[in-house]
């Protein structure tokens, strides 16, 4: 899976990315894009980010083999700050991933050390694709297992634990919600905020890191680090929490029937990924353009006008889908997906689609297995459920509404051949303009 992620060329995309010069500084642009929900002193942070380059970090825990859309928000914040001249540290949590931050309702299932180590490799590859490792402010990937593993339990308690007050820890939102639940909270998850605080202290000492970014739901963990550095080093450092991205109707963004939209193309195909963005509602699309693309304020305001004046054209959704799919999977993958979408409905050549793209594009269609003896147009329409009976199928053909692989079939006695199958297996069967199904050749 890691090889799949690294295979997508990103150099051209990184080179094309720029912050919007119409803003006086990066802080003001982050505010306009809706990326600041909570932070330490705003005035100090704005001044800090407008000044000399600083080192900052964001952490990603390997609690799954891939990052998802929520993580993409953080990756883009890292990149925007890097484009402003600052030095990013992408932390992959080889130690914190063994524990996992507290869930709101129940204890996490702990993964094995081997599994977490494998996932660390995947996440390093993913994080690396969104940052530049060249120039004076080149990114660096770090793993908190490097400084946590050598530390004994006694040393951990004496050197780090003594600076944390249980009363303060109990008041953290993630902990408080679990304490009031039937599940309670284990000492393992309770200690997570200490480990994250220690990460910030270590990065401050090693690299002079003075800013941590993360989701606003992690604010308790973010401030555990700022407080620890203040106590141990007597220094003021900063934290920035981005808002949790929700849809206009209040539902959680990036979830579909409990499934995250993953950044790994094996776990979520580029076609599915593109369609997710294409289906963004009019109420949400402008906000998504601000957060997930590098389009300028002027460009986004033009799309905002388009949504208001020509919502049926869905210009903003199509641009959003192209931009984010290109960002995550590469321009070539985005163009293949667009070609597949057009070809499904007769506006392109199905034959040019690679098997992976074709399979992903037809994944949600009704699929029927057929044999070489069932390749008559009538049999295909019935087998795929596009016609209720052979007589209904014949009427569809007679009315000019039957297609196989985008070829119109006008003879109800016509058959297709095995040689006509896409990639030797697939027949895209269509009734009219919008009713689609797939017949897959057995054997």
TrEMBL record:
It holds the Pfam family SYY_C-terminal. One of its GO terms (cellular component) is cytosol. A motif ('KMSKS' region) lies at residues 252-256. A motif ('HIGH' region) lies at residues 62-71. Its EC number is 6.1.1.1. Keywords: Aminoacyl-tRNA synthetase, ATP-binding, Cytoplasm, Ligase, Nucleotide-binding, Protein biosynthesis, RNA-binding. ATP binds at residue 255. Residues 362-435 form the Tyrosine--tRNA ligase SYY-like C-terminal domain. One of its GO terms (molecular function) is RNA binding. It comes from the Bacteria. The keyword Electron transport does not apply. InterPro entries: aa-tRNA-synth_I_CS, aa-tRNA-synth_Ic, Rossmann-like_a/b/a_fold, S4_RNA-bd_sf, SYY-like_C, Tyr-tRNA-ligase, Tyr-tRNA-ligase_bac-type, Tyr-tRNA-ligase_bac_1. It catalyses: tRNA(Tyr) + L-tyrosine + ATP = L-tyrosyl-tRNA(Tyr) + AMP + diphosphate + H(+). L-tyrosine binds at residues 57, 192, 196. It is found in: Cytoplasm. One of its GO terms (biological process) is tyrosyl-tRNA aminoacylation. PANTHER family: TYROSINE--TRNA LIGASE, MITOCHONDRIAL (PTHR11766:SF0), TYROSYL-TRNA SYNTHETASE (PTHR11766). Belongs to the class-I aminoacyl-tRNA synthetase family. TyrS type 1 subfamily. Catalyzes the attachment of tyrosine to tRNA(Tyr) in a two-step reaction: tyrosine is first activated by ATP to form Tyr-AMP and then transferred to the acceptor end of tRNA(Tyr). Homodimer. This is Tyrosine--tRNA ligase.
């Amino acid at each position: 899976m890691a090889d799949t992620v690294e295979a997508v060329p990103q150099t051209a995309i990184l080179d094309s990315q720029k912050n919007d010069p119409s803003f006086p500084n990066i802080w003001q642009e982050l505010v306009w894009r809706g990326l600041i929900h909570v932070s330490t002193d705003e005035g100090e942070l704005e001044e800090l980010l407008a000044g000399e380059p600083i080192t900052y970090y964001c952490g990603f825990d390997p609690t799954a083999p891939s990052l998802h859309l929520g993580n993409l928000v953080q990756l883009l914040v890292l990149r925007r700050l890097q484009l402003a001249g600052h030095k990013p540290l992408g932390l992959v949590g080889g130690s914190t991933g063994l524990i996992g931050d507290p869930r709101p309702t129940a204890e996490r299932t702990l993964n094995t050390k081997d599994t977490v180590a494998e996932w660390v490799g995947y996440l390093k590859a993913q994080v690396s694709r969104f940052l530049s490792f060249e120039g004076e402010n080149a990114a660096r990937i770090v793993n908190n297992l490097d400084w946590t593993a050598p530390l004994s339990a006694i040393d951990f308690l004496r050197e780090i634990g003594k600076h944390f007050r249980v009363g303060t820890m109990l008041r953290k939102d993630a902990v408080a919600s679990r304490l009031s639940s039937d599940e309670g909270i284990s000492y393992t998850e309770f200690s997570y905020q200490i480990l994250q605080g220690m990460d910030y202290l270590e990065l401050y000492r090693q690299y002079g890191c003075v800013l941590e970014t993360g989701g606003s739901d992690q604010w308790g963990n973010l401030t555990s680090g700022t407080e620890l550095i203040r106590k141990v080093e007597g220094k003021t450092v900063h934290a920035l929490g981005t808002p949790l991205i929700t849809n206009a109707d209040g539902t959680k963004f990036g979830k579909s029937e409990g499934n995250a939209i993953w950044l790994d193309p094996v776990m979520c195909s580029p076609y599915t990924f593109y369609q997710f963005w294409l289906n963004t509602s009019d109420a949400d699309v402008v906000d998504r353009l601000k957060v997930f693309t590098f389009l300028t304020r002027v460009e986004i305001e033009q799309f905002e006008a388009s949504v208001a004046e020509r919502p049926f054209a869905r210009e903003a959704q199509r641009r959003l889908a192209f931009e984010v799919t290109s960002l995550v999977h590469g321009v070539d993958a985005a163009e293949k997906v667009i070609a597949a979408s057009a070809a499904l409905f007769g506006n392109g050549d199905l034959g040019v689609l690679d098997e992976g793209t074709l399979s992903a594009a037809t994944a949600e269609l009704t699929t029927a297995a057929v044999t070489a003896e069932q390749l008559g147009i009538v049999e295909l329409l019935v087998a795929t459920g596009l016609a209720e009976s052979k007589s209904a199928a014949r009427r569809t053909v007679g009315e000019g509404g039957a297609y196989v692989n985008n070829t119109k079939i006008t003879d109800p006695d016509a058959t297709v051949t095995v040689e006509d199958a896409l990639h030797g297996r697939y027949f895209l069967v269509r009734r009219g303009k919008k009713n689609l199904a797939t017949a897959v050749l057995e054997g």
